Amino acid sequence: MDIRKTEVSLIKKRWENIKSKNGEERKKELMILLRMIYPLIADSRGREVLELYTKLKGSDEALKEAEGFLEEVIRSLE
After folding, report:
1. Would you state the pLDDT for residue 59?
2. CA atoms of 27 and 4, how far apart (whole Å)
3. Which of 20, 19, 22 has the alpha carbon at shortest distance from 70?
4. What single-letter DSSP state applies at residue 19?
5. Which of 6, 14, 17, 54 is the most buried (most CB within 10 A)?
6. 3-state secondary structure 21-48
7. Pseudo-torsion of CA 39, 41, 23, 21, nearest 10°?
8. pLDDT, tens digit, for every residue of 22-65?
9. What is this structure's pTM?
């Protein structure tokens, strides 16, 4: 069994479920997804993940930016 495929599958499921969440719960889910994605893309885009995670931790203003980034990255993992 390929661990990477399993991780990608879990990330995609969480991503689809995030659309039904609001507010603080949505923010927490985005932060979890960033932590899940980091090991898969650390070599190429790790710095971006860390910066977004830090922004999200500090304020809600980075929600749209994080969602856009995650959408792009999740599509590239397929």
Report:
1. 83
2. 25
3. 19
4. T
5. 14
6. CCHHHHHHHHHHHHHHHHHHHHHHHHHH
7. -90
8. 888 999 999 999 999 999 999 999 999 999 999 998 888 889 99
9. 0.89
